[in-house]
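Please check both lines for our workbook:

___
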Amino acid sequence: MGKSKTAKFLALDLGAESGRAMIGSFDGELLRLEEIHRFSNGAVQVLDSLHWDVLYLWKEIKQSLALAAQTCGDSLISIGLDTWGLDFGLLAADDTLLCNPYHYRDSRTNGMMEVAFQHLPRSEIYEWTGIQFMQLNSLYQLLAMVQSETPILRMAKVFLMMPDLFNFWLTGRKVNEFTDATTTQCYDPRAGDWAWELLEKLGIPTQIFQEIVPPGTVIDSLLASVAEETGCPQIPVVAPGTHDTASAVAAVPTTDSDYIYLSSGTWSLMGVEIDKPLITSESLANNFTNEGGVNNTFRLLKNIMGLWLVQECRREWARRGTTYSYDELSQMAAQAPAFVSLIVPGDSRFLAPGDMPTRIQDFCRDTNQPVPETNGAIVRCALESLALEYRWVAERLQDMLGRPLPRIHIVGGGSRNRLLNQFTADCTGRRVIAGPAEATAIGNVLVQALAMGYIPSLAEGRTIVRKSFEVAVFEPRDTSAWDEAYERYLKLRPEFG
């Protein structure tokens, strides 16, 4: 395919709250993004279980292809898709999807880490995988299926993470992409393959796992049947960093390594890029994770309960009859008194969907703090507590790496939250560079452009991002009040990993 003056790439970015189709247009110097489709996403409860509505998402993906074909015509070069991590689909021998994929917040993983530790010491699991212990991990989802003796697992022939499943439906090829595979806690980053012995010791069938391919792989061309249905040409489907955080980090607009990235959205993922995994007693004690990155890197990071806290408050208040925009919530929080009460975002009570305002109030009551009564006070409590957790993570990162990390690059939708950005700068004492907000889609496009030969390197791609998108800078102000709040936070935190 000849290279047109302006090449266009379709980035399909599915997050835990919404999905979007973005056209990335690259003229050889600057990259521009255009949103052509957006759709909602979220958990669907069936009896006592939480699932993803996978066929609805597939319908919206095909709608995105149709709109991209109408918008771009022959200038559309390739397609790339990314999603959240952890969740997966299981296929039968005839490629039938055996059940609706479970949502990582489903309760079936309750107690599964403790079951795993009865078979293997925590330290041994970490030594194999280098992954943060969270009951959401694919490893414990699979172990829950082993424990319940579900016939679905016995019938399964193929394990595909969510982006792998959609890529299979797009191309007909079954592979597991590296960045998403590493989120499972089923992958051995030292061996560069699935953690076969770990899986066997936990009774998880190993034959279901597929070939692992690196980001930037051209999986195949779009299936003729999908092309005919959508009107989209049979162009290549590229695996970007199919884990959305891997794509977001690829778009961090920086030229050096002396920074911390913070991919801010439903989750806050905070860490650094390194050349090889850091699996030590210290990283285990701090419960840090080593997830795969783009360009032969690993992402040493901490998964933090992020703006989910505010999203669930907003959803609950809407259910009670009052709908707020996120800007309105930030304004209310800014007007509320500072440092009245704090929560620990990692408390398991905040994990599941539900009445988040009451849970925040209950945490404060249970820890003998004043109970925030107004909606603004509740949101301020959540945002201040997130900033304090960011400081804890930043300090651990600096200690483990043994070098200063004076900047924090915040990317993703949360980079629009100016109040939290300023809290982060003030609390950590670091300069914060916020943006681009659509980093995941941008990183997705960059890897496609790299795979298709439109840019020579990821470093050049990041230079293009710096030239193409504006960022906002937040300088730290007086931190003394934050220092006092941090001492209070440290006293609350010890029991939470």
